[in-house]
Specification:
Elements: E1 2-6, H1 13-25, E2 30-33, H2 44-54, E3 57-58, H3 62-68, H4 80-92, H5 95-101, E4 108-113, E5 116-120, H6 138-144, E6 152-154, E7 162-166, E8 169-173, E9 195-203, E10 209-217, H7 220-228
Parallel strand pairs: 1-2, 2-3, 5-6, 6-8
Antiparallel strand pairs: 1-9, 4-5, 7-8, 9-10
């Protein structure tokens, strides 16, 4: 089983199409989306339509939940431009699109072959708003993974690619398709890198597991034109 993990798409169709093309060339068997699909970017409708056409499993991220509960975002951030961007995206959504977002699940277990499994979530298995950063301590990992066991634990949310081993388990963050961060913003404005990120997780009948972190170059002109095409709140910043 060869699985493409995509996360934190944030309405970036140029990046999603580039990643899906790269994953197709790699011969993936299925795609799993780890959440945060439509908000903040210029192409929420198109990104949702791509995922729907793929019929891939989608995990509910915090930004997906913000679309369904208008008050929830203020428990996560009061940053005006982010709140405005989420409110703008929600106002664009049709009832049918919101119904699709409601089908997203909190977590998912994916068989990889040979008894190996992958547990998928957004932030941590306990919360789609909780950060799991690359420098997290072993005690932090023990806490967030308590009650959950798998060969691979896979989540997004932080926009930072990660691959590490914790007590025999591989912990992977595929990074962000739509807004990969150069570093954790630590309360400041994040710096966005000009590529798209995802991961491929492959399992074999003998239980062997391979994880590859991927970075896909993007056409900067296409990104600028995409941002300029819609009057969304983060247009000038992007």
């Amino acid at each position: 089983m060869r699985v493409a993990l995509v996360s934190d798409l944030h309405g970036n169709l140029v990046a999603l199409d580039a990643v899906l093309a790269d994953a197709e060339r790699a011969g993936v068997d299925r795609v799993v989306c780890l959440g945060d699909v439509a908000t903040l970017g210029p192409k929420p409708h198109e990104v949702l339509a791509r995922l729907r056409a793929l019929e891939c499993a989608c995990i509910e991220g915090n930004h997906d939940a913000f679309l369904l509960d208008a008050a929830l975002i203020r428990s996560y951030t009061e940053t005006p431009i982010v709140v405005e961007a989420v409110d703008w995206c929600r106002a664009q959504m049709s009832g049918d699109e919101l119904a699709f977002v409601r089908t997203f699940v909190a977590g998912l277990e994916v068989p990889l072959g040979g008894g190996a499994t992958m547990r998928c979530y957004h932030g941590t298995p306990q919360s789609h708003m909780e950060d799991l950063l690359p420098h997290a301590t072993p005690m932090k990992l023990d806490h967030v993974f308590e009650g959950h066991a798998a060969t691979v634990m896979a989540g997004g949310h932080t926009h930072l690619q990660m691959l590490r081993q914790h007590r025999g388990t591989l912990v992977v963050n595929p990074g962000s398709v739509g807004m990969p961060f150069l570093e954790a913003p630590a309360g400041g404005e994040p710096r966005i890198m000009p590529h798209a990120e995802y991961a491929i997780v492959e399992g074999g009948d003998d239980g062997a597991v391979e994880v590859r972190l991927k970075r896909v170059p993007l056409d900067r002109r296409a990104l600028r034109e995409q941002a300029a095409s819609t009057a969304f709140p983060l247009r000038d910043w992007l």
